[in-house]
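User: These chains co-purify. Model them together.
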Amino acid sequence: MMGGIYGISKDRLEKLFSALAAERELYLPVMSGGKVNFSVWEEGEDVRLDVTKTAKSPKDAFFPQFETLYTCRTEEGKLKIDPEELCRREFVVFGMRACDAAGLRVLDRVFLSEPVDTFYAARRELGTIVSIACGEPEESCFCRAFGIDAASPDADVAAWFSGERLLLKPQTEKGTRLISSLSEYLTEADGAEAAIEEEQAKIRAITEKLPYSLLSLEGWGSGETKRKFDSPLWEKLYRPCLACGTCTFVCPTCQCYDIKDYKTKNGVQRYRCWDSCMYSDFTLMAGGNNRTTQLQRFRQRFMHKLVYFPENNEGTFSCVGCGRCVDSCPSSLNIVKVIKAFSKDGGDE
Amino acid sequence: MCGFGNGNDALIPRVGVITDIRTETPDVKTFRVVSPEGGKLFEHMPGQCAMVCVPGVGEGMFSITSSPTQREYQEFSIKRCGVLTDMLHSLSPGDEITVRGPYGNHFPVEDALKGKNLLFVAGGIGLAPLRSVINYVLDNRADYGSVDIVYGARSADDLVRLDEIREVWAKAPGVGVHLTIDREQEGWDGHVGFVPAFLGELGFDADRTALVCGPPVMIKFVLSTLGEMGFGKEQVYTTLELRMKCGIGKCGRCNIGSKYVCRDGPVFRFDEIDELPDEY
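Assistant: Joint model of the two components:
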């Protein structure tokens, strides 16, 4: 059972999920508390594969919001360090989208570059990704501006809804192994290539016409530090920013983290958690702070995504156009506004 | 199964035992640290840093004060100025901490600095990272030209390790030591005045490579004095200090421009710093 296309009817997906979840952890977009987010699925939960965008990106399957790194304890008067076990369980993230899969590639560049973050690397090795093409892209989507094709998502298994079926196509060895293990739930659908192409054409016709689809990144990227950093535009752009950090928490590519202590009865757990460059204490030291204003912090976020990151990563931007910041900013600020503001005259005014 | 070992992550520290604590000034102590089995925790180069942690209190990046030529231990000179450093100052010999590192680049003692006349300019606790280089240079004396050390502090009591400076450095061959304090003080018959002005009075030839460390305002004025003396920016090195959590260029805190100070620094040449946005 190598390559090829496999199908399953929508009404049998629940059975497929049960089979997947019996062997490993299965992350699915689930409705909970009025929001759809990825979480480890349990029988009977309200799975919402029809929702294009989860509130948070699914990055926490690989880079959890909180994770213990090690525990310090005292044994017979001596300090001992117990590193946290690395991930040992296989898991599947089912229903990622093209933008979030591209976001993971951005995180790979951070966490898999030397010295490798072994906690992240272990999850990357054990996680299998099933991505679904976006049948209904949303108005705030602009992955196309970053060269991402919502109709053919990067994944171990790419999937398309076509009528009453979900069509699955393994893209990697890991994906092929997953599909092989599910043979009793799937039917071979070798003739479905045309159906996939039809769905892809439909999706691309939509993404071309989305409001932000023509967003241009010209003038951003490597070598633009001086010109962009010194622009007077930041002074106007940052003003509505409340420094709430929502944009950084919903973002699939934001990777900044903090390392903190949690005192337990038996010792001290040192854990890592997501942090935000939007916060005033992010760079605060006993001896001073190099970003004392919200303008500086606001500018840092966008300069990092659109100039500094590409400079270190062969031009790859640290934004995938998922548009979650567009949807969730309480002040209606977002990366689209920043890119557009600079597009007129490069920000020189 | 994943193919990764457990505990080999750069974020996992090792236990360090404090074997000696020297009170250098009213607010600076030097901590000597070894591994529980004895001996150094790791090898390092002059200018590199390490994360020092008191579990349950905090972790911070400190430059390693001792020279790599010191085979037995590492030392950190730490100024008391916050929660973690307060706690460190309350520790005693025999107490355990955690240490991870070394992190970052180092002063180019093996290439760019070799054979050069060296001018060290330090203010206050800024001597800490330079002390590692100075002792490395003195232990490999034949590899370098003349050495001049210009060092100033608020008062004579704030000059870190005056004994070593006077007994070892000042007596080493081809080394000039030039000390200054900010204000007149009883018992002090040396120079009085700020470091940048003192440096100007001393007036060195620009055939030297300068290594500068101190408070940001001192660095700024020293740089302009060096410029007046004819030093080019590519002849001057310094170390930067920003908030850090990971030490490996991933947590995002010490990012300025496309550089991460923990990974690409902390040692920068001034022409490299000129390329960075003004946010350090």
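The first helix of chain B runs from residue 83 to 89.
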